[in-house]
Amino acid sequence: MKQQSVLVIGAGFMGSGIAQVCAQSGYRVHLNDVKPEALGKAEKGLQWSVNKLTEKGFLQEDPDKILNRLTYETDLSSAAEADWIIEAVLEVEALKIDLFKALEEKIPATTPLATNTSSIPITRIASHLNRPERVLGLHFFGPVPFMGLVEVVKGERTGDNVFEAGVDFITS
Questions:
Q1: Are 3 and 30 in contact (CB under 8 A)?
Q2: What is the rounded distance in angstroms from the CA atom of residue 103 to the CA atom of residue 36?
Q3: Predicted pLDDT of residue 2
Q4: Interatomic CA distance for residues 165 and 172, integer angstroms
Q5: Under 8 Å between Cβ of 151 and 139
Q6: Which of 18, 85, 88, 125 could join 10 via S-S bond, C-beta 3.0 to 4.6 A?
Q7: CA-closest candidate to residue 135, choices 93, 104, 172
Q8: What is the mean pLDDT of residues 55-65?
Q9: pLDDT tens digits along 102-152
Q10: 5-171: CATH homologous superfamily?
């Protein structure tokens, strides 16, 4: 079985944390942001965090192995190959909708699109897309590496298979 990959869009506090826990869980992670400086800051922060957690005994795996599962990008070139896409951009509804619309044209019809939103209804975001059944909420609580709490949120048209896959993904 191939190692699954996750595209996390948004390299701020939440996106970096999501990328970290995905890498710690064995996923290949592409962390994306439109700002190269945000990616640089995220990379340094992730190196510090993973090394600190290892030093304190919270992580048993070699930190270099975890960090080597992370790549950084400013374009969406990895979207077509991603098994999961999680957006963690600013809480601006139009931004999230425009991002998902752009992604819809680049990815297979079965790739789940997850939003980390805490305030925008999943149904409202999904209603602007051609395949609303693949949209769900994966609302991580921060700081992500320490909380261990994620809400899996189903929109009115989220497919049962997508919702169940989201639960499986989070528990992996």
A1: no
A2: 20
A3: 54
A4: 10
A5: yes
A6: 88
A7: 104
A8: 96
A9: 999 999 999 999 999 999 999 999 999 999 999 999 999 999 999 989 999
A10: NAD(P)-binding Rossmann-like Domain (3.40.50.720)
The DSSP-derived string for 144-165 is HHHH--EEEEE-TT--HHHHHH
Q: Where are the domains of the chain?
A: 5-171
CA–CA distance, 22 with 8 (Å, rounded to integer): 9
Q: What is the pLDDT of residue 1?
A: 45
Look at the pTM and tell me if it is higher than 0.90.
Answer: yes
**Assigned token pair, 101:** 């619309």
Q: Supply 141's token pair.
A: 């609580």
Cα–Cα–Cα angle for 143, 144, 150, rounded to 5 degrees: 125
Q: Which residues contact 88 (CB under 8 A, 6 or more apart)?
A: 8, 9, 10, 12, 14, 15, 18, 116, 140
